[in-house]
Amino acid sequence: MGFLSGLAKFASDTAKNSQIDSMREMWEKLEKLSTERLLGIFEDNNRFQKQIGMLVYLQLEKKCATRGVKLSEEERDLLKRKCSSLKRAIELAEDYIFDDIRGAIRRTEENLSRYY
What we know:
- The protein has helices at residues 2-31, 35-44, 51-62, 73-89, 96-115.
- The protein starts with a helix and ends with a helix.
- By secondary structure, the protein is mainly alpha-helical.
- Helix content is 77%, strand content 0%.
- It contains five helices and no strands.
């Protein structure tokens, strides 16, 4: 049983590292886009239904451009859950990109508690 549990942990760690690498790559690409383009991508990708939508929203938050985004109560709840989940996922990642993401998450959480 020890071998199988070790193999399962290895597979889990590999999947998490792949997700973090993918997130880093997407964040770098999104940083180069204009606010208008980010808003378009956010609307085109079902807002928070995909990871790209969450990262786009955080980029908009980083650029202080989320005032144009109207959120329903359901979307605000989803955003809170996704922020919490994303914080746990990148908790141990050490890179300036993840510092940016953590900062955008903090601002998002502050704005959610301030305005809603």
